Amino acid sequence: MIVRIMGEGQVKLDDAHFAELNKLDDELLAEMESNDEAGFQRTLGALLDEVRRLGTPLPDDALEPSELILPSPDASLDEVREMLSDDGLIPG
Known about the structure:
With 92 residues, this protein is an alpha+beta fold.
């Protein structure tokens, strides 16, 4: 799957990693629901770090369609709320 981190670029991520990423996504949702800004920022950073660690960066000139778009590391809680689906940022 091709994942875009807003403001950074794209990575190719194996579908096998989505179970562990969903754990962080669930934490992020809980922090958003409780308006825990500090926890939200910490977990968003951890989620993006894991995507970067597990994924393979695509060249900057690659124009692959992104199947998943994640917020930038400096996104606010309100900005991320607007991006959410019922499943959170990561489907499943």
